[in-house]
Amino acid sequence: SETLYDRLNVYYFVDGHALNDKPWLAKVAAETLSKVLALDNPTGQTPMNDEEILTFLNGDQGRVEIENALRALQQLGVHGIPKFIIEGSSVVDGAAGP
Fold first, then answer.
1. What distance in Å separates the CA atoms of residue 65 and residue 92, rounded to the nearest whole number?
2. Tens-place pLDDT, residues 16-45
3. CA torsion angle for 40, 44, 1, 72 (degrees, to 10)?
4. DSSP H/E element including 65
């Protein structure tokens, strides 16, 4: 979610904290999910709590998907951000001029 991304950016770039503090990440993710789902939750989905998120962060669930995504990005020549991938094949540097 963009809301979580924004909060993590402030935590790291503004407040100067590390992003590898899993208990803190789990807490922030749970809070953000609760807020986002409180605003827009047509299915009535219950958000994960911080303990469930921490278990996910400490586990291997999703590892294969992340490794596949990293390989795909490397094949496209993406090694940093910001980058925009257009139609799955064209890569544009986010810092490029118009």
1. 23
2. 888 899 999 999 989 988 887 777 767 777
3. -130
4. helix 63-75
